Amino acid sequence: MYPLTHQATHGGFASSYQVARWVPSTQVETMWTLPHGDNLGCGQLPPSSLSSFIVTDSMGNSYFPAYNSSQTKLERLNPSTNLFTEWDIPALACASFDFNDSSNNFYLTEYSLGNGSIESFNPSTNTLTEWSMNSTICHPSIMDSTDTIYGSGYYNGASTICKFIPSTNTITSWPVSGGNLASDSSGNIFFSTSGPDQTYQIGDLSTSTNTVTEWTIPSNISPGSQMTVDSSDNVFFTCSNGFCRFVPSTGIFTQWIGVSIGGYDLKATPQGITFSGYSSGKIS
After folding, report:
1. Integer Cα distance of 39 and 36 in angstroms
2. CB contact at 8 A, 130 and 5
3. pLDDT of 168-190, one tens digit each?
4. Residue 35: helix, strand or coil by DSSP?
5. 3-state DSSP assignment of residue 91
6. Rounded Cα–Cα distance for residues 33 and 18 (Å)
7. Mind giving me the DSSP string for 39-87?
8. What's the CA gap between 164 and 135, in Å, rounded?
9. Which of 218-224's residues contact partners 24+ apart within 8 Å by CB, and which partners?
10. Neighbour tally for 261: CB within 10 Å
11. Is 253 in a helix, a strand, or coil?
């Protein structure tokens, strides 16, 4: 465990990178520009290489990694006040926020050691706690409502979906090939996958029964690299030219065309769907 340096709180400045929020019910998009010309992600890995960027707390604040020419940081955006808060992290670290637990500790994957270690960040004490992990076995992606971590990886040469419990440091794997993981209120793990016939599917892994259910995505929809599940257990994911929604209870897919999303990250919050991106000064 080691402390982070708390930097400053300030308003936004001109930059090419933004954090954005989209509300499906009103189809309203709001964007905030990162301060000081900061970049999303870190110097070692570009945004598109990181599994996840942004997490939100119960108050709707968003947390994400950022960097400039001299420092890698953790940043927080308060959308109610439009203020950013920064914490410096070690110069060699390259982190992506993945999830936050029921105690409001934020978990991130740290790449500076090359082993995909998991760290928890406590914003109240500005400290990080680290667990070493071999990223080729289980790469963390999400945390469910019981504070259990899930990810994708490999075991005996086969693709897997895996479970990691920080309190016991144990890993469980299922022989399922899938990415873009998200969990619902019952602890089911949704993922996207593709078949040999060039079709795409949404999959549902029941961790209690070890069964998988799959739905074929309509041929006019090309899924992107991000997925999230809202409080009603609707599955949202990035897709060609916008957002898509899948309702497991009905099997219905809905697509919104023209939403200006960069596609780096996607999170469902009570305030709407939050995402981050980059395109010459605007999300697109």
Report:
1. 9
2. no
3. 878 888 888 888 889 898 889 99
4. helix
5. coil
6. 4
7. EES-SSS-GGGSS---EE-TTS-EEEEEE-SS-EEEEEEETTTTEEEEE
8. 12
9. 218/253, 220/255, 221/253, 221/255, 223/180, 223/192, 224/263
10. 26
11. strand
Task: Give the ranges where the chain is alpha helix by DSSP (H).
Answer: none
* Alpha-carbon distances, residue 137 vs 142, 156, 262 (angstroms): 15, 9, 29
Q: Is domain 2-278 classified as CATH 3.40.50.1000? A: no
Domains of the chain by residue range:
2-278
Structural tokens at position 4: 């982070």
Query: Which residue's structure tokens are 């010309």?
Result: 37
Give the separation between CA 52 and CA 141, rounded to whole angstroms: 7
Query: Residues 30-78: pLDDT tens digits?
Result: 888 888 778 776 655 444 444 446 777 778 888 887 777 777 777 888 9
For the record, the structure tokens of 132 come out as 């070493």
What are 59-63's contacts with CB under 8 Å, separation 24+? 60/269, 60/270, 60/271, 62/19, 62/274, 63/97, 63/100, 63/106, 63/123
Instruction: Evaluate if pTM is beyond 0.90.
Output: no
